[in-house]
């Protein structure tokens, strides 16, 4: 009976095909199917036309089966996300019995304890959402810095010195005294793997050398006269885990107003200025990509060359920790762009990409208190709406050696 249980949707309409079951893989049909009662004489003849007809019929049935398997069953697995949504993590309460994860032992040897309010705040962030602008690192962030990013005063000093020596010995970067805070960004991103940090520093240096204007700021008047500069929206509050949340509104990008090269410069200004914030260095980013209003004029800019350059800058040069990508209001841009982007992403990042059928689904991943009203949240006025213009002004001082942190 287990092999007769349906694994795809059961339709009410009898004219629709019957649902797939595990038995289809074993015998090619349902176990409970009735035997065939009408057999034509043609079924017993072995002539070439009848055999060819039977072969084509079986081939057609096989193709129908695999199409249904792919479209009805495999696509349904996309809803089984690896990362639990925000609502699930908030169900833990004080005095709940929990397993304590410990990398030193197998799962069956983990200890069980009663959760306390202090432990919940440390593990899942804060009970209250934090503002984007901060001048200190909360206790749970300091713990993440030590345990997850492997940074202590001793390792920080040791690995910083090692990275500096590697850069001095390299022909491309020798003679450049990088800002300490700038190098720490790369060490935190690599969890203090100096080899990986060195690779990223060289990449961003080579990017500047190959495309001299790629890390330049935009003219200030752009933010007063061009609607495309409103594509990037920084939210004034963080996720409970401390992540910085940014919304990309691609429908506002007008390629006739600013070029693709200028758009990518604007994106790099956002990345590099946000990463001057230690909270963002440690906790990472979450992005919401809103494709409402995007059309063919934006699609024409999504050439393989442009997309790969954006990928290279974002994921092979910028020392950002990417915690989630949420796609809403899908348009004709999404499928072709995703088809090109997907092979470039690691499996870990692919598992952090979420396609939402409606805006309300964002509430499964973000608390209502941090989202704008138009995205189902409570924020009516965004005090950080002018942040990108201010960041662009700060970016004028961004040189080869980097910039110090904001605090």
Describe this protein's structure:
By secondary structure, the protein is an alpha/beta fold. It is built from 16 helices and seven strands. The protein has helices at 23-26, 48-74, 86-89, 117-124, 139-147, 153-169, 180-189, 194-210, 222-225, 260-274, 278-283, 296-299, 304-316, 334-341, 347-350, 387-394; strands at 97-100, 111-114, 232-234, 244-249, 285-290, 322-328, 353-355. α6 packs across α7 (180-189), α6 crosses α8 (194-210) and α7 packs across α8 (194-210). Residues 79-90 have low confidence and may be disordered.
Please describe the topology of this protein.
Blueprint (H helix, E strand, L loop, with lengths): L22 H4 L21 H27 L11 H4 L7 E4 L10 E4 L2 H8 L14 H9 L5 H17 L10 H10 L4 H17 L11 H4 L6 E3 L9 E6 L10 H15 L3 H6 L1 E6 L5 H4 L4 H13 L5 E7 L5 H8 L5 H4 L2 E3 L31 H8 L13
Parallel strand pairs: 4-5, 5-6, 6-7
Antiparallel strand pairs: 1-2, 3-4
Helix pairs in contact: 4-5, 6-7, 6-8, 7-8, 10-13, 10-16
Organism: Trichonephila clavata
Protein name: Alpha-tocopherol transfer protein
Pfam family, one: DUF5641
Share of helical residues = 25-40%
Q: Biggest sheet, in brief?
A: 5 strands, mixed
Give the neighbour order of strands across the main sheet. 3-4-5-6-7
What form results from the Cα inertia axes?
globular
Global mean pLDDT: 86
Q: Any low-confidence stretches, pLDDT <50, length ≥5?
A: 79-90
Give Rg in angstroms: 27 Å
* N-to-C SSE string, H for helix and E for strand: HHHEEHHHHHHEEHHEHHEHHEH
Question: In terms of structural class, how would the helical and strand content be classed?
Answer: alpha/beta
Number of strands: 7
How much of the sequence lies in strands comes to 5-15%
Number of helices: 16
**Whole-Å distance between the termini?**
64 Å
């Amino acid at each position: 009976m287990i092999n007769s249980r349906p694994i795809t949707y059961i339709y009410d309409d009898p004219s629709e095909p019957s649902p797939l079951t595990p038995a289809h893989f074993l015998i090619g049909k349902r176990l409970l199917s009735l035997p065939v009662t009408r057999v034509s004489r043609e079924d017993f003849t072995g002539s070439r036309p009848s055999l060819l007809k039977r072969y084509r019929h079986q081939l057609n049935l096989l193709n129908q089966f695999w199409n249904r398997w792919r479209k009805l069953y495999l696509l349904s697995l996309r809803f089984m996300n690896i990362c639990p949504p925000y609502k699930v993590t908030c169900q833990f309460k004080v005095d709940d019995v929990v397993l304590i994860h410990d990398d030193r032992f197998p799962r069956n040897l983990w200890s069980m304890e009663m959760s306390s309010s202090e432990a919940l705040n440390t593990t899942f962030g804060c009970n209250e959402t934090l503002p984007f602008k901060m001048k200190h690192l909360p206790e749970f962030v300091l713990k993440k810095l030590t345990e997850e990013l492997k940074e202590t005063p001793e390792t920080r000093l040791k690995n910083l010195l090692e990275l500096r020596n590697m850069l001095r010995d390299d022909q491309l970067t020798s003679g450049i005294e990088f800002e300490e805070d700038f190098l720490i960004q790369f060490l935190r991103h690599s969890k203090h793997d100096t080899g990986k940090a060195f690779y990223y520093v060289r990449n961003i240096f080579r990017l500047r050398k190959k495309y001299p204007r790629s890390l330049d700021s935009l003219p200030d008047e752009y933010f007063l006269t061009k609607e495309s500069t409103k594509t990037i929206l920084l939210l004034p509050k963080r996720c409970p885990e401390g992540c910085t949340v940014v919304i990309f509104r691609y429908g506002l990008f007008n390629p006739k107003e600013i070029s693709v090269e200028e758009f990518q410069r604007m994106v790099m200004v956002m990345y590099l200025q946000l990463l001057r914030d230690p909270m963002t260095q440690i906790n990472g980013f979450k992005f919401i990509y809103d494709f409402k209003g995007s059309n063919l004029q934006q699609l024409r800019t999504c050439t393989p060359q442009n997309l790969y350059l954006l990928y290279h800058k974002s994921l092979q040069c910028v020392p950002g920790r990417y915690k989630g990508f949420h796609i809403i209001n899908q348009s004709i841009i999404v499928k072709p762009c995703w088809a090109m982007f997907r092979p470039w992403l690691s499996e870990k990042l692919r598992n952090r990409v979420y396609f939402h059928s409606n805006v309300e689904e964002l509430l499964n991943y973000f608390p209502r208190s941090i989202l704008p009203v138009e995205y189902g949240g409570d924020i009516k006025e965004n005090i950080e709406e002018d942040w990108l213009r201010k960041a662009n002004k700060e970016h004028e001082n961004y040189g080869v050696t980097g910039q110090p942190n904001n605090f």
